[in-house]
Amino acid sequence: MSFIQIRQVDYSYPRKTNPAVAGINLTLEGNCITALVGPNGSGKTTLTKLMIGLLPPSRGEVYLAGRSLKQYTLAQIGRRIGYVFQNPDLQLFCPSVAEEIAFGMTRPGQEPELIQEKVDFYLDYFELGDYRNAFPLHLSQGEKQRLAIAAVLANEPEFLILDEPTIGLDAYRKKRLEDYLGKVVGLGRGMLLVSHDLVFVNRMAARVVGMENGRITSDSGQEGGQTHEY
Amino acid sequence: MNIDPRSKMLIVVCLTGLALMYDTPRQLLLLFLAAIALLFIFRFDIRTIAGYFRPFLSLLLFLFIIQTIFVPGGEVLLGVRHTPLITSGGLATAASVVLRIAVIAAAAMLLMTFNSRDFILGLVQWKVPFELAFMVAITLRYLPLFRDELLTVVTAIQLRGVELKRVPWGEKIALQRSLIFPVVYRTMLQAQQLAVAIEARGFRAYPHRTYIRRLRFYWADYAVISLSLLTTIALVVQHMA
């Protein structure tokens, strides 16, 4: 069963005549990496926000695991889909780096020792150990990006949407991220990467969906892996 | 009818002044209705006005209840044992407080009818130092951003899987720290960055500024200003008498 299904979705921002996205039909499976590429302003981020219910479609419907997104609360969506914003500042709100990573884990009542273990793992993997007690908003842009990704991954969601995850990352850390995301997919989780980094996209994605002017213009994932141009 | 921003600012000052002066629910209700009528004259429709007031409703209700219970006076309408809960004086005070806030909020809507550049220009032409006028305009510009920042953090918390409505009260208080701290920090950081950015553009580099535009009064502005001042003075004199 497809994990996310978008059927005939349009969306227009308030007081704008042209739709930001129009006529979107897209199915995302829960066990592969899909990349969403396109020029600035093509509607990629808008589409991801529609997928997680941050924006309600003007027309059409979005389905998560077979159920309409309207039947979920934002928190229920957040438990199943991990979303990393393009600007990591928007999702950092805890007083320390360690708390930021632990935040999602403390709610369901996991054991403190297990939480601590996971926090240590992510701090180590994303090389944020030196900043354990630092205030997240004091970190550099790249460090914030790593922290935002770590904090979302720590929740172990079934599906990840990463909006420009490589911004601010140097080549070494990009490689570390690639390795980690590869492991995540190996565990049976799906992923949507929104990225301008075509090298990263080509290395990671099994399927590439192209967007332009709010519409899907190509999709390499249909009918036997052949790219279909629209 | 294009009214000069200064005329509208004067209306706001008059309405706010009257709201602070009046202390009975009847007077304040009439003032509130007058403020709403003015909004219709300035082409606000009922949906915009209702949408503007909607976020305030729960705060106004909360204030009404608190004032009613904790500022007793007059006849006891509802009491528990010998403790007055609802009194006529309490209701009157509560209504006055709520209506006063509503009048000021309605008056502030008039400030939304022109942009910050005209606002600064208007104040400067009224001999307010540019730095002060700019400071006020920036504050007004950032208030909605402050609210947006709060909403962003609330969204981010929910996207981490937290059902805010189901969080126990004790944890809700702890969550406030996660809500308020980053918003205040980011706002202060933005203020700092804005200060650097405007200084880098030569803000206050010279004692005098040149303005591309100048605001001008037309006959409608003189009429509005005269009417506002005369009405306000008459009401003040009537109230004092």
Helix content of chain A: 25-40%
N- and C-termini, Cα separation of chain B: 36 Å
Rounded mean pLDDT score of chain B? 87
Taken from the alpha-carbon principal axes, the silhouette of chain A is globular
In total, the number of domains of chain B comes to 2
Give the low-confidence spans of chain B. Answer: none
Q: How many β-strands of chain A, per DSSP?
A: 11
Query: In percent, how helical is the residue content of chain B?
Result: over 70%
Count of DSSP H/I helices of chain B = 8
How do the strands of the widest beta sheet of chain A line up side by side? 6-7-8-3-9-10-11
Rg from Cα of chain A: 18 Å
Helical run tally of chain A:
7
What is the terminal separation of chain A in angstroms? 25 Å
Low-confidence stretches of chain A: none
Mean pLDDT of chain A, nearest integer?
A: 88
What summary fits the major beta sheet of chain B?
2 strands, antiparallel
Features:
heterodimer, A: about 230 residues, alpha/beta, 7-stranded mixed β-sheet, 4-stranded antiparallel β-sheet, B: about 240 residues, mainly alpha, 2 domains, two-stranded antiparallel ribbon, 8 helices, about 5% strand
How would you describe this structure to a colleague?
The complex is a heterodimer of chains A (230) and B (241). Chain A is an alpha/beta fold. Chain A has seven helices and eleven strands. Chain A has helices spanning 44-51, 74-80, 97-106, 112-125, 141-153, 171-186, 198-204; strands spanning 4-11, 21-28, 33-37, 59-64, 67-68, 81-84, 159-163, 190-194, 207-212, 215-222, 226-229. A seven-stranded mixed sheet of chain A has the order 6-7-8-3-9-10-11, sandwiched between helices. A four-stranded antiparallel sheet of chain A has the order 2-1-4-5. In chain A, helix 3 crosses helix 4 and helix 3 (97-106) packs parallel to helix 5. The radius of gyration of chain A is 18 Å and the shape is globular. The two termini of chain B are 36 Å apart. Chain B is flat, with a radius of gyration of 22 Å. Helix content of chain B is 73%, strand content 4%. With 241 residues, chain B is mainly alpha-helical. A two-stranded antiparallel ribbon of chain B has the order 1-2. Chain B folds into two domains: 1-114 and 213-241, no CATH class; 116-210, no CATH class. The longest helix of chain B has 32 residues, at 169-200. The mean pLDDT of chain B is 87. Classes of the chains: A alpha/beta (230), B mainly alpha (241). The A-B interface holds A 52, 54, 73-79, 83, 85, 89-95, 103-104, 107-108, 135, 137, 151-152, 155 and B 152-153, 155-164, 177-179, 181-182, 185-186, 189.
